[in-house]
Design goal:
4-stranded antiparallel sheet; alpha+beta; OB fold (Dihydrolipoamide Acetyltransferase, E2P); Dihydrolipoamide Transferase; 22% helix; single chain
Length: 511
Amino acid sequence: MSIEVRVPTLGESVTEATVATWFKKPGDAVAADEMLCELETDKVTVEVPAPAAGVMGEIVAAEGSTVGVDALLATISEGDSAGAEPAKAPQKDADEAPASSGASVDVMVPTLGESVTEATVSTWFKKVGDSVAADEMLCELETDKVSVEVPAPSAGTLTEILAGEGDTVKAGGKLAVMSGGADGAVEPAERPQPEGNEAVADGEQYTPPAAGKDVEDAPSAKKAMAEAGLSADQVQGSGRDGRVMKEDVAKAAAAVANAPAPAAAPAQAPRAPVSADDAAREERVKMTRLRQTIARRLKDSQNTAAMLTTYNEVDMTEVMALRNQYKDEFVKKHGVKLGFMSFFTKACVHALKEVPEVNAEIDGTDIVYKNFVHMGIAAGTPTGLVVPVIRDADSMSFAEIEKQIAEKGARARDGKLSMAEMQGGTFTISNGGVYGSLMSSPILNPPQSGILGMHKIQQRPMVVNGEIVARPMMYLALSYDHRIVDGKGAVTFLVRVKDALEDPRRLLMDL
């Protein structure tokens, strides 16, 4: 009897994948649930297990092939698979046991994303004893990057909550237990993939296998190594023939993190003595994971990059006049307001073409030049600063840019941005002017080498053609990594942005 191996569900809005690696070849003995191949999408990496024991038959989709959901990958001839030993799965904690059989099913922590190993339970939407429909949201988890909603794997009743609000849980850990529905049986549904949580941005550099190594590491492990800054020789593989898997990278990263530092960093200054009366009026709140990540990344940026800021100012008269002239027609045709951000995005794209080092990044002893612009637009939210990325902004029109900014800004305020939407930026624009800031020095968003700070537009006296006139002026600030960007390049970039904004016709003429 021949059994078909098909492409599983890949996640919301994901319709196709690429076959990255086959672990078996025709004629190999296969055990039930043994990994047959690995698929890669633009958001996640999916491992495909064997649906039953048997012998590997025909491979229909070779490595590198693009396949759609439910497409045929291969066939397995069902039969005696003695000698087919299941691949050893990585050891898990006690709380990560597989779902129990019978009339109950475990609610597990979903995959949280590459390099994300734990999360905090922020909110339970259901309590013990509540009836739950299939795919109904049970709880929300908070990681240092995104919020993840956990749906019910099937219909039933919530019988036990194992991780309460505020508890820290590991990826794959058990959150709760559900009992069966009216028919007394629960069939565990396929766990949905979290949207975009495992995406790796275009242009990231993967760590190559160690010299002399014949076994190809898992693509997901390569991505995890790239994000963790680990080389292949720092990770001990536990997969077949020593193949490095995602779990191996997580263990190696944890070992590096727990290793004693070569030189102790200065301890944080102790708090000043507080009187009992003042202490009673204080409120102590634990930092969210997002806030902790923001603090760590900004400090790392200061410690790593040779950061310097240069300033200029721009007369906004022409941009404001052009915007006022066409804003009504723009809304009618495109359904979105014409703001200043599209002008600044276009101006920055124009300047980045002339000064490409501002759009590059350092990778070890290499400089990686990006022949595209993924523009990060910093946005303040109730939970902290996030930077959604507009991909390929260099090929977008004003209307497309404004639509992207509006859509991602709304998702950021609602806390619905996925990790994929905040990765891969090559340059960032931060608009402190919306809060009334007149001047600031923005901090780099690593590994980027440049960030432009916009500020408040203010009427100031300027000398124009020998006369003093009031003009709407804005200070611009470019913070850049002096290791890769020279002062001349930084000043040239700002001047090109200034020229394009003071005479927007230059953008149309590519001057």
